[in-house]
Amino acid sequence: MNKHNGPKFQTATTLKHEILAGTYHSFIFETKNPLIYKPGQYISVRVTEDRINAYSIAGNDEPNKFMVLVDISPGGPGSKFFEALKVGEKISYLGPFGVFTLKENDNAKELIFLGTGSGCSPLRCILDAALKEKNIQKPLTLYFGLRNPGDIFWQDYFKKLSQEHPNFKFKLTLSRPDESWQGPTGHITDLVNSDFSNMNGYSAYLCGNKEMIDEANNILALKGVAKEKIYFEKF
Ligand SMILES: Cc1cc2nc3c(=O)[nH]c(=O)nc-3n(C[C@H](O)[C@H](O)[C@H](O)COP(=O)(O)OP(=O)(O)OC[C@H]3O[C@@H](n4cnc5c(N)ncnc54)[C@H](O)[C@@H]3O)c2cc1C
User: Boundaries of CATH 2.40.30.10 in the chain?
Assistant: First the structure.
């Protein structure tokens, strides 16, 4: 691409870089002008001279700030870029982009959210807005899948959200637990399969790896969720 005619990148300054757990890093960025986005959207970050990666917006507390959650376990250029990113350094990005957003007028009677690993990031953003800003009163349930106890992040955040909003339920499951873990185990798709019989009238929001999304699509369809009401973003 010709550098001079290419898209116009925005810049944001790194205000915070925190390792939440294992390979999960959380970042707060500050922009000159507010980043206007729909919860669930992502930005495209320049991670090397010739590589741009997508990262979902996890939320923001102030108009000129936004949060991103990065799993550095893939180990490629994006992972390396974010692992090394220091407070005060700038990122260049395009966007926001994407249509993985809350469909408020799809007549769903209940909403279910399935996220694995960093796939929980856009779901947090969508749920936060749905509960705190849009004041949605329908039942919302989040199934959050991680591997082992050392991976756990945002558990307290979602617990608090469920205490503050009785229509929101949250289940964290680990696929590789150890004896310290008292909660549900296995894949989130197995849990959904055993927790629900008829899901007619539900909408589903899925985000994470391809395997989970493919499996969830199959299970949800068998449970009666209409195909057009299964929304997903593959990472
Ligand atoms: C719309 C969208 C939004 C995204 N949002 C986020 C986000 O908020 N946070 C985040 O951490 N990532 C997110 N991703 C994934 C991200 O864009 C990168 O693909 C990921 O960070 C890996 O980049 P990399 O350069 O480190 O590795 P790559 O060079 O792309 O890949 C290195 C190796 O890891 C494998 N791999 C790639 N991605 C993954 C993965 N997600 N899990 C396991 N293995 C993988 C590849 O097949 C390859 O073998 C998003 C992707 C999309 C499409």
Answer: 10-97
